[in-house]
Design a protein that fits this description.
Helices cover 37% and strands 17% of the residues. With 426 residues, the chain is α/β, with parallel strands linked by helices. It has two domains: 2-41 and 85-172, Enolase-like, N-terminal domain (Enolase-like, domain 1, 2-Layer Sandwich); 176-414, TIM Barrel. The strands form two sheets. Strands 4, 5, 6, 7, 8, 9, 10, 11 and 12 form a nine-stranded mixed sheet that branches. Strands 3-2-1-13 form a four-stranded antiparallel sheet. α6 (196-208) packs parallel to α7 (225-243), α7 runs parallel beside α8 and α11 (333-346) crosses α12 (359-367). The radius of gyration is 22 Å and the shape is globular.
């Protein structure tokens, strides 16, 4: 079924004049086998811009005084400079055939790939996507969560890139074709000061750059008492007054609150019409999400720690969420995120992937109805440097990202920036 779907997608792309790529002869895939699964560390000295100092967002550990950082009060502008950087990329080879490339990936995922998934994949058909995912998932009894599913995610994404290169087509074309030529990005402001007057000034600048959807990270929780709650409210008020009514404002508590705190905040800021409150409580507290959604008039979002379609279905059956934020770097890759989109669409709930990275999320969103997947997340400070070794790093213009047309995810390393390559062993 997978072979047939990919073949038909590639033929469709080739049949549209100027609209796709000529597909390889599908017969060339007969006998194609995975011969190597490699993790490479790429190093170099990169001209980049970094925030100093960086605002620490709220975290669950901050209920303890000794772990709660002092707020950053400066209006911090990114500072240019040349810095040593390293990134991990996963490469899957087929012995003279197409190769798949994906990254950057996390070290935790890379170790799983090298130790557990690499021996499993050697000799298997890289085009048999559904079987490969199922084999990897069934291989480990802890596969449904954590680092193992992150390893599956990295591998699945690299395999999608390989299939895109084999069929000479972007991944979104293999997923059914694009629903838009450009994808609206929302700007995540992690790292910027949340002093209200500073944040307000920054929000106006971002609005002029086309970010008419912005997410701000709340810095205070129960450990900061009533004064901290009022600082969280003051941030929302200042942002709304600064950008007006035509900008969506979203807020992220990074699992640092409990239900009562979240309700107290929500009741005070609902007049400013936040688009959502994200990760108000720990992800396992589904009933708290249910109660928050019922009792607050603010949409409720979470999902970067939803690791598969079954977990997503549990949240949605409970009526816990308005937005699912599953991340294709963590939830099982492109293959699983597309299934989560299907589950969410049944419940008329949107999927707006968490933006740990961008390549896989962009291609999935591009292949889905805008009703289901209207946006991608763009972490403004992280992403300006994250793809520093890539020839074609993804970046929004006027708040939107134009779909790449290169095969696979279109990831190519810029050799002029690479000073050292190391084949990793753990």
């Amino acid at each position: 079924m997978v072979h047939r779907r990919l073949f038909l997608s590639s033929l469709a792309a080739a049949a549209v004049p100027g609209g796709g790529f000529a597909a390889q002869n599908p017969a060339a895939g007969a006998g194609l086998k995975i011969t190597a699964v490699e993790v490479w560390r790429i190093e170099g000295t990169i001209e980049s811009r970094w925030l100093t100092p960086s605002q620490s967002n709220l975290q669950p550990l901050h209920i303890y005084d000794e772990y709660r950082p002092k707020p950053v009060l400066e209006y911090n502008e990114p500072q240019p400079g040349r810095r040593k950087q390293s990134r991990l990329y996963l490469k899957i080879k087929t012995g003279g055939g197409p190769e798949g490339l994906y990254g950057p990936i996390d070290t935790e995922a890379a170790i799983v790939v090298h130790r557990q998934l690499r021996p499993l994949l050697i000799g298997l058909d890289p085009l048999a996507g559904e079987k490969l995912w199922d084999v990897m998932f069934r291989r480990n009894r802890h596969s449904r969560r954590g680092h193992y599913i992150m390893g599956i995610s990295a591998t699945d994404n690299a395999l999608w890139d390989l299939r895109g290169r084999f069929y000479n087509s972007p991944v979104y074309q293999l997923l059914g074709g694009p629903t838009r030529k450009r994808i609206q990005a929302y700007g995540s402001t992690l790292g910027f000061s949340v002093v209200p007057e500073h944040a307000a000034r920054r929000a106006v600048v971002l609005k002029h750059r086309g970010f008419v959807h912005q997410k701000w990270f709340l810095a205070y929780g129960p450990g900061d008492g009533a004064a901290g709650l009022q600082k969280n409210v003051a941030l929302v008020r200042a942002l709304r007054q600064a950008v007006g009514d035509d900008v969506d404002l979203m807020f992220d508590a990074f699992s640092g609150w409990d239900l009562n705190y979240a309700l107290a905040w929500a009741w005070q800021v609902e007049q400013y019409r936040p688009r959502w409150i994200e990760e108000a409580v720990h992800p396992e507290k589904i009933e708290s999400f249910v109660q928050l959604r019922r009792r607050a008039r603010i949409p409720v979002a979470t999902g970067e720690h939803i690791y598969n379609r079954w977990e997503a279905a549990g949240y949605l059956r409970a009526g816990a969420l308005d937005v699912v934020q599953a991340d294709p770097e963590w939830c099982g890759g492109v293959s699983e995120l597309t299934k989560i989109c299907t589950v969410a669409s049944v419940h008329d709930v949107q999927v707006i992937p968490h933006g740990h990275s961008l390549h896989a999320a962009l291609h999935v969103v591009a292949s889905q109805s805008p009703m289901t997947c209207p946006l991608v997340e763009y972490l403004i400070n992280k992403m300006r440097n994250y793809g520093c070794f890539e020839r074609y790093p993804l970046a929004p213009e006027d708040g939107k990202i134009t779909l790449p047309t290169r095969p696979g995810f279109g990831i190519e390393l810029d050799e002029s920036k690479v000073e050292k390559r190391t084949l990793m062993e753990w």
